[in-house]
């Protein structure tokens, strides 16, 4: 049954994305940029509805009161394609720094350009990265929310963390609050399989780290908070969803945490 539900969900998920892009493009590209954001946000809501009705997966968000007003950096743990779009309905005017190759995708790239997403060549250095940083500053001055995944790429639940120091430099240069976020959608939407699993999980938004720390102190604070909160939420999510198959990384990490608590 899980396999059939997964096939149906995956089919409708991508059909929903493509058809909305095609048929809503005239509205999207005629509207002012920020007003047009309601189309991607409604798409995200529709994806949540599909996942709940077809797969049986639901979620809740804790800590919405921790989101500041105006511009800030959102720094979530990154496990699944789910978390790339899931929080859009709760954000005012988010902006992403994207691989430039994504901007070349028909329709998707055009949508991203409309929202002034920031393309970057990951191999770039020097003046190119300085230009990206300057562009980011300009977007933040208008009160937008920059979404950055501190580990840079998707990591399976419980995996040994691999944080990139670049977020500390961005924090130093932008001088805005950073909001850590933990969640474990990778247990329900794994990155290495097409299967989708039913259950319920939480997205936990932590208190913002205010600007003004030196980069090293900020980096230690951010990574420490993310890992501590992620470990606690992993144990909670696995306990509340005993039917969900845990990847080896999650089983190993839970065993380590239980062993540490009993010693």
TrEMBL record:
List membrane-spanning regions: 12-31
* Residue span, Phospholipid/glycerol acyltransferase domain: 72-186
Entry's Gene Ontology molecular function annotations: 1-acylglycerol-3-phosphate O-acyltransferase activity
Keywords on record: Acyltransferase, Membrane, Transferase, Transmembrane, Transmembrane helix
**InterPro entries according to UniProt:** Plipid/glycerol_acylTrfase
Do the record's keywords include Membrane?
yes
Q: Which GO terms describe its biological process?
A: phosphatidic acid biosynthetic process
Record has Transmembrane as a keyword: yes
The highest taxon in the source lineage is Bacteria
Q: In which pathway does it act?
A: Lipid metabolism
- Protein name, please? 1-acyl-sn-glycerol-3-phosphate acyltransferase
From the broadest rank down, the organism's phylogenetic lineage runs: Bacteria, Pseudomonadati, Pseudomonadota, Alphaproteobacteria, Hyphomicrobiales
């Amino acid at each position: 049954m899980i396999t059939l539900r997964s096939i149906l969900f995956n089919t409708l998920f991508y059909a929903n994305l493509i058809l909305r892009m095609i048929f809503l493009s005239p509205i999207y590209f005629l509207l002012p940029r920020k007003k047009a954001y309601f189309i991607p946000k409604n798409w995200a809501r529709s994806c949540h509805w599909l996942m709940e009705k077809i797969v049986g997966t639901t979620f809740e968000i804790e800590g919405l009161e921790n989101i500041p007003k105006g511009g800030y950096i959102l720094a979530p743990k990154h496990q699944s394609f789910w978390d790339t779009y899931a929080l859009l309905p709760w954000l005012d005017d988010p902006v992403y720094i994207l691989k430039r190759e994504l901007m070349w995708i028909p329709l998707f790239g055009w949508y991203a350009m409309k929202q002034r997403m920031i393309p970057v060549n990951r191999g770039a250095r020097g003046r190119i990265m300085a230009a990206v940083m300057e562009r980011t500053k300009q977007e933040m001055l208008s009160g937008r929310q920059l979404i950055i995944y501190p580990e840079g790429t998707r990591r399976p639940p419980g995996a040994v963390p691999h944080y990139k120091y670049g977020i500390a430099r961005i924090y130093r240069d932008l001088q805005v609050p950073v909001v850590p976020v933990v969640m474990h959608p990778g247990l329900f939407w794994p990155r290495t399989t097409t299967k989708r699993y039913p259950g319920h999980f939480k997205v936990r938004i932590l208190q913002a780290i205010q600007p003004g720390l030196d980069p090293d102190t900020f980096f230690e604070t951010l990574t420490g908070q993310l890992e501590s909160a992620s470990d606690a939420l992993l144990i909670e999510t696995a306990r509340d969803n005993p039917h969900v198959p845990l990847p080896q990384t999650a089983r190993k990490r839970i065993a380590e945490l239980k062993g540490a608590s009993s010693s």
